[in-house]
Amino acid sequence: MDKIAAFGDRWGGLAKVLGTVVTILIFLGVGSFIYNEVWQKKSLTYTILPSYDLGEQAFSGLVIENRGRVPLTDVQIIITDLEAPIQALRMPGAHEPANIVDGGEGQNQVRIELPRFSKEGSLPIYLMTNGVVNLTPEGNFLVTSAEIVAKSSTELDVSSFLVTVVLAAVFAGLTVVVTELIPLWVKGR
Fold first, then answer.
1. Helices in the chain by DSSP H: which ranges?
2. How many other C-beta atoms can be found within 10 angstroms of the C-beta atom of residue 66?
3. Could you tell me the CA-to-CA distances from 71 to 31, 42, 63, 101, 121 in Å, in that order?
4. First-to-last C-alpha distance (Å) of the chain
5. What pTM was estimated for this model as a whole?
6. How far is residue 32's CA from residue 51's CA, in Å, rounded to a whole number?
7. How far are the Cα atoms of 46, 95, 127, 140, 189 from residue 111, in angstroms, in the given order?
8. What residues contact 184, with CB distance under 8 A and at least 6 apart?
């Protein structure tokens, strides 16, 4: 009976050490993923505002947001091929300096640049036109930065789910290290 207990103790200790080694390897292997996808997450989104027909004028627009955890650089918002010329263009509120570099009022297009877009920043763009215009990412607008291309704010973010799964695995591994390795180390002293 003592031989069986000794055998179990030996293999149980080996299993704990192997679990710790695997945990450390997982932590090291996913470290860059966690740094890039969680700590330094980049997320540029757009929301298309509904169009309102006011008779001889129409109101529409976009809201551009940096939902990431780092600033973005060289953000460009390009709106082209509008069905009616822009009568008024407004970008209200506190935000980074936004420059109209091409088009604008009186034109059927506009190009807006932001040299830097702070984390959690927002830029509303309101357009007043002679008629209703339809803004579609496939057809007449593009939002990009030097780091990423914008996605619709309504799209499912699969990377957030993956990050949650990876973080759960890492924390489970750290729990094993704390509950198994440290007591073994203390017991050996």
1. 2-34, 158-176, 182-188
2. 27
3. 21, 8, 17, 21, 9
4. 28
5. 0.67
6. 43
7. 15, 17, 13, 12, 68
8. 13, 16, 17
Spatial distance between the Cα atoms of 19 and 6, rounded to a whole number of angstroms: 20
Binned at pLDDT 50, 70 and 90, residue 14 comes out as low
d(CA 24, CA 163): 18
How distant, in Å, are the alpha carbons of 36, 112, 141, 152 from that of 156? 19, 27, 21, 9
From the CB of residue 102, how many other CB atoms can be counted at a distance below 10 Å?
13
Parallel, antiparallel, or unpaired for β 151-152 and 44-53? parallel
Q: Tell me how far CA of residue 1 lies from CA of 14, 15, 58, in angstroms.
A: 20, 21, 87
Q: What is the residue whose two structure tokens read 């640049």?
A: 113
- For residues 67 and 43, the answer to whether their CB atoms sit within 8 Å is yes
For the stretch 128-169, pLDDT in tens is 998 888 888 888 899 999 899 888 888 756 566 666 677 777
* Tens of pLDDT, residues 169-180: 777 777 776 666
